[in-house]
Design a protein that fits this description.
The protein has a domain at 11-74 and 129-163: Chitinase A, domain 3. The protein is built from two helices and ten strands, in the order βββαββββββαβ. The chain has helices at residues 47-52, 149-159, and strands at residues 11-20, 26-29, 36-39, 61-66, 80-84, 99-104, 109-117, 121-125, 135-146, 173-176.
């Protein structure tokens, strides 16, 4: 009997998935027409999902339960903080629930959700929306192949910290509204808990 290549280090994987929160509600989904492709072993998925699909082959289906610690982290109260309203684009138009992406000086993106709007400031939350939740992924592997040398090189470069990396807590950053694309299974930079924004721009 011939077995296909298994999901493992240095494999390029294409999959479809449905993501459920801990209440069983669907929060994200891909399919055969718009699948997710990634390079296994380079932190491109949340850790619990990446470990959970190791060993799968093309055509396999699996349900993977991911605890918060292996998903988007536990909810961190310190990730909720206040930013001057004047730092936002169009400060007179900010509303509770608005989402922005702050860009630090090294290009890292930090998602901000507005929780409160005051006269001179806004309270924002930089926790991932799924932080603290136990998640379930129903996964179908569509393709597995060996990664090319160039794909591996790009993944290694993406993992390497920038040479000018410094502690980024309360670093200056720019911010913009997200384009609305889904990144639910992507690994999230949850260590960047705060950002003192001095310049912000908004996507229209």
């Amino acid at each position: 009997m011939t077995f296909g290549m298994q999901v493992g280090p240095d494999t390029f994987v294409t999959l479809a998935y449905t993501l459920y929160d801990e209440d069983g509600a669907v929060v994200d989904r891909t399919d055969d027409e718009q699948p997710l492709s990634y390079l296994h072993g380079y932190g491109q998925l949340v850790p619990g999902l990446e470990r959970g699909i190791e060993g799968m082959t093309k055509g396999d289906l699996r349900s993977v339960v991911v605890p918060a610690a292996d998903g988007y982290g536990e909810y961190d109260p310190e990730a909720v903080f206040e930013i001057e309203r004047s730092d936002f684009p169009h400060p007179g138009e900010i509303a509770v629930g608005d989402e922005f992406v702050a860009e630090s000086d090294d290009g890292q993106g930090i998602s901000l959700t507005v929780l409160e709007v005051h006269e001179d400031s806004c309270v924002v939350d930089t926790n991932h929306p799924l932080a603290g939740e136990v998640l379930r992924f129903d996964v179908t592997v569509l393709e597995v192949r060996a990664a090319t040398d160039s794909e591996i090189q790009r993944a290694e470069e993406a993992l390497a910290p920038p040479r000018s990396a410094r502690p980024r807590r309360k670093q200056p950053c720019t911010a913009r509204r997200p384009r609305g694309t889904s990144t639910s299974v992507s690994a999230s930079a949850t260590s960047e808990r705060a950002c003192s924004t001095k310049r912000m721009s908004k996507n229209t």
